[in-house]
Every structure is written in structure tokens, then in C-alpha cells.
Amino acid sequence: MKSSRRTGVTPGGPTDVKSGELRVPTAIAVTSADMALPAQDERTVPAVVLTGLDRGPLDEGLAGLHRLTEQHGYVVVVCSEATPEPVVRRLHTLRALLESDRVALFRPALPPLGVAVLARQLRQLASCDLSPGVLACAGRLLTHYIHAGAVLGSVARLDRVPVGLKAHARSWVPGSQFAVLAHPEPQVVRVGPEATLKGPEFGTWMLVAQGQSHSDWVAGLGTRWGVHGLREAPLPAESPLWWGTGRLVEFCGYLADLSVLYQLVTSVRQTRCHWCGLDVIGDRCVFCRATAQDPASPRALESRTPA
Asked: Where is the stretch described as Disordered (predicted)?
């Protein structure tokens, strides 16, 4: 199904643009229940939770993923860089056994709470008239608008964000806390009344997940960022591994309005993937990993010519 651009900011519903018939939205899957955040609005489609992939029999996982592709057409699995490797290997194995380009594995360079927020944004967009290729590629675009960080009791084991020697040394001082922004621009500051982190230059909401620690400083950061409001969520189980400590409060600034997300995605020029033929945005198809090309190029036109 090809996507349809609309002139207004209100996103279209889950219909086939040619026939007008209702369609089943592309499935947005996560690998644990704590990565499936509550729906942002009444249109947000439910997340598909793929649990126990590395523990169950291979044939059961294969049958389940096959059913998903048959029901939804396309599946986008969103997981963090802290997702256990056995789970990631099983996903790659299942995708290879299906011999299908209809399953995409997307692992953005975000902390787990940011990944959960991104997965929910894709669930919001899945209800719109976006083609599967454009929806999957939207994850790479929306990553740039997420500000993800944490307040940590120690940065001694933090290896995903550059940390200076002074901060490492201060980690051993009892009661020390550090505010770290992992994305989009790494920053590390020692928590104090005047300490702050560079925030977004546009209006966002802030999601906060408390771990074994508590910090009022995050609420103050939200005020300095001018967020529309703060919401709370359980801390993802993968967060302590990603941040290198269980003493943390994770936070994420993000765009929550569906019409804004839709306008961002549909304002980007679409091209055609020369390998699988999907409409995509950006320079790479998330499903087949092939480089996208200009729809007006000779090779692209040739690839669309029926044999």
C-alpha cells in the first residue's frame, strides 16, 4: 500500500487509500512488557510483546512471528542496545528462517526509556495512513527529537557516554549524583542547585522512571526545559545494564502530539527502495537494509518496470 500525503495536520485513519477499506496497522513489537508504555491517546495501537524468545522452542517463536506477518503484513521490532544478546540472536534467526523482508529489527542508540517512548510514537503513527516502509523509517527520524538521560548515583561503570576522569573520581564520594544526557548530545554534570543540561528547543513532555533512587532535581530540569508536563513510568529492566548502575532516575523529553509526529514524517521526501520496492524516507530501508534511491533515477525507474 502506498502512503497518501494530506494537506492538513490531522492524520488519516487506518484505511487503504485506494479502496477505502479498513486495514490492519503494521505491528510494532517490543521484547518485554515494561517496554510497552500505556497508550498516549485512544488511537495508539497496542504493542505486540515478544516475551521469552530466547527461552521457548524455536518452532514456537517461528510460528508466532509468521502469524504476526500474516495478520499485519509487516512487523517492526523495536529493542534497545541493552536487550540480551540471546534475544537479539533469536530475532535474527527467526527473520532469516522466514526468508522475509517484512520483519524489521530496529535498535536505536537510545537508553531503554527512550526506546520505549520511540516505540510508542511508532504505535501512534501506525494508526495513520503511512505505508509500512515510511512508518519503519520514521523511527530513525523521530530519534533526533528525543532527549534521553538519567540521574545516576555513580558513573564509574557508565561506558555509553564519555565521562571525564574528574567525574569518575567523584563517583566514589558518598552521596554524589550525576545528571547525564545520553542523547542527542552527550553531557555529564554533577547534580547541584545550578546544574542543568541543554534541553530541546521545542515543546516536549517529560517521562520519568524511578529506579532505586529518587531525585527532585529531574522535576526542576523539566521546569527549566519548559516541558508541558511530567508523567511517570516504571523503570525498564534493561536500564540498569545500559546505565551501569541500579541507582538511577531515568528521564526522557519527547513529542507527544500525534498531529506533530505525523507532520514531521510526511514532510520528509519519500523515495523507493530499489530492493524491496517499499516507499521509504531517509537513506536506508529499515526492512531490507538496502540503500534507498531517488524515484526518478534511471535504475529506480527500471526496477519498477514489470518484466
From this structure: 1-21
258 and 43 Cβ atoms separated by less than 8 Å = yes
What are the tens digits of pLDDT across the range 224-278? Answer: 999 999 999 999 999 999 999 999 999 999 999 999 999 999 999 999 988 888 9
CB count in 10 Å sphere of residue 151: 25
Positive or negative, the CA dihedral 31, 33, 34, 35 is: positive
Q: Of 71, 125, 59, 56, which is closest to residue 102 (Cα–Cα)? A: 71
User: Counting Cβ atoms within 10 Å, is residue 117 exposed (0-12), middle (13-18) or buried (19+)?
Assistant: buried
| Closest CA relative to residue 129, chosen from 26, 44, 27, 17 | 17
Contact between 50 and 31 (Cβ < 8 Å): yes
Q: Show the domains of the chain with their CATH numbers.
A: 27-144 (3.40.50.10440), 147-254 (3.30.1180.10)
* pTM of this prediction exceeds 0.85: yes
Do 252 and 146 contact (CB within 8 A), yes or no?
Answer: yes
- DSSP result, 180-204: EEEESS-EEEE--TT------SS--
